[in-house]
Specification:
Blueprint lengths: L2 E4 L6 H10 L8 H17 L8 E7 L2 E12 L4 E8 L8 H17 L3 E7 L3 H9 L3 E6 L2 E7 L1
Parallel strand pairs: 4-5
Antiparallel strand pairs: 1-2, 2-3, 3-4, 5-7, 6-7
This protein binds coenzyme A.
Length: 154
């Protein structure tokens, strides 16, 4: 099992949409969704070039196949905080992929953005996410409106 983080490419669109279907985020992909995701992907790729991007998204490859992504968003360059999120295709759950990918991503974003605090949220009942965050060194901070917040202080 080889897990690699890599930049998105425009040709990832079809596979990205396939992963949305796999996770039941959409039942069917129509033109509107396709366009919306095409715009998202363009922005993701543009952000690789920017000096202070609004968000930074990286693709997760498992054995050379796109299976999900991680994002650093709400990047506050002044206060040096940012939030991370991640998701992977259902077929690949329960193999330690998210934990491994998150650990690699944390190293990458610490180097890139030099944050003082990294924040992450998940819905209260999403136990797998909580475990992944804990295994990557996040500490539970607070629960509010059905959301749990974690952080890493650097
Ligand atoms: C959350 C998610 C990323 C986990 O990915 P994954 O590759 O299966 O995660 P890992 O295999 O690295 O670790 C999962 C951990 O959660 C545990 N877990 C899974 N389901 C669980 C449950 N219902 N209750 C308690 N623990 C659970 C596993 O046992 C494992 O912990 P362990 O190593 O201590 O045994 C994946 O389920 C996902 O993409 N979900 C949809 C999107 C999402 O929720 N994103 C997170 C929002 S920030």
């Amino acid at each position: 099992m080889e897990i690699k983080l890599r930049k998105y490419r425009e040709k990832d669109l079809e596979r990205h949409l396939e992963l949305f279907l796999m996770n039941g985020i959409y039942k069917k992909i129509n033109e509107k969704i396709k366009n919306q995701e095409k715009i998202w992907l363009k922005k993701v790729i543009q952000n690789y070039e920017g000096e202070k991007p609004e968000f930074f998204t990286i693709a997760i490859n498992l054995d050379n196949k796109l299976i999900g992504n991680l994002v650093a968003e709400k990047i506050d360059y002044k206060n040096k905080t940012l939030e991370v999120g991640f998701w992977i295709g259902k077929d690949y759950w329960g193999k330690g992929v998210a934990t491994k990918a998150l650990n690699l991503f944390l190293k990458m974003i610490i180097k890139k953005f030099n944050p003082k605090k990294i924040i992450a949220h998940h819905k209260k009942g999403n136990f797998a996410s909580g475990r992944v965050l804990e295994k990557a060194g996040f500490k539970f901070e607070i629960e509010k409106k059905g959301m749990k917040t974690y952080n890493i202080m650097l």
